[in-house]
Amino acid sequence: MQPFAFQRPASVADAVRALGANDDGRALAGGQSLIAAMKLGLSSPGELVDLSQVAELRGIRVDGDRLVIGAMATHAAIAASPDVQRLIPSVAELSGGIGDRQVRTMGTIGGSLANSDPAACWPAGVLGLGATIHTDRRTIAADDFFKGLYETALGQGELITAVSFPKPECGAYVKFKQPASRFALVGVFVSKGPAGVRVAVTGAGAAVFRATSIEAALSADWSPAAAERAAVSAAGLNTDLHGSAEYRAHLIPVLAARAVAAAH
Question: If 0-12 CB within 10 Å is exposed, 13-18 middle and 19+ buried, where does residue 236 land?
């Protein structure tokens, strides 16, 4: 690991100033991915800006029919929140199924989204519910946020401050876990709400994406059978030692069907 400077601001304004003062600075949320990458020499920031003491980033609240979660809310805190469990139980269930207890205690929703791991769970929940990502500069619709492998719409020094989720009529997330990492070999989030049917897939491509063929099938017939009958192309999907693109293409409608059956 290379030497680096370290700051621990107490407010969003101070954190934004710290990030803006150094082109080589990185925000540190839970550190689940960044610290590991630094140890492996895959990332060498000149400065870390630790967000752990920024209290305004940790809140969880209900705003009308929307759920607003601060970027530094941990997976464990989200899973345990009565507001989350009541308003959008599928979000609590997704959060409670991430990694293991240590990961859920340290990892944060904002850190997960900013990292945009192609097999992470939160991108599926955010895209599958049509959430909005709030930063220190603007708001970004989930459909515009995920750009590619570990790539998002965030600019240099831009800081996620919160994520707001609209309340769906129903929704659920089901993943086929890679047993060692507990990341999704394939994960599918389905929801039905005022904006229609949304189906988001993680673990299968370079980044999370919407399965439009399953969305069309479920828009016509909201049933597990309709989801499972939908065809998903293997073109552009991942092939690795855990599974081929064809295997992942087969899993997507199977998991979508299970998610529809579990949706509430």
Answer: exposed
Q: Can you tell me whether residue 76 is helix, strand or coil?
A: helix
CB 18 within 8 A of CB 7: yes
Domains in the chain with CATH codes: 5-166 (3.30.465.10), 170-262 (3.30.390.50)
Q: Please, what is the end-to-end C-alpha distance for the chain in angstroms?
A: 46
Question: What 8-state DSSP symbol labels residue 144?
Answer: H
d(CA 212, CA 196): 12
Q: How many angstroms separate the Cα of 98 from the Cα of each of 68, 91, 119, 121, 178? A: 19, 11, 11, 7, 12
| Residues 165 and 195 sit within 8 Å (Cβ to Cβ) | no
Q: How far is CA 139 from the centre of its chain?
A: 16
The dihedral sign for the CA sequence 102, 107, 112, 113: positive
pLDDT per position in the chain (264 positions), as tens? 788 899 999 999 999 999 988 888 899 999 988 988 888 888 988 899 999 999 999 999 999 999 999 999 999 999 999 999 999 999 999 999 999 999 999 999 999 999 999 999 999 999 999 999 999 999 999 999 999 999 999 999 999 999 999 999 999 999 999 888 888 999 999 999 988 999 999 999 999 999 999 999 999 999 999 999 999 999 999 999 999 999 999 999 999 999 999 999
b/e per residue 241-259 (b: at least 16 CB within 10 A): ebbebebbbebbbbbbbbb
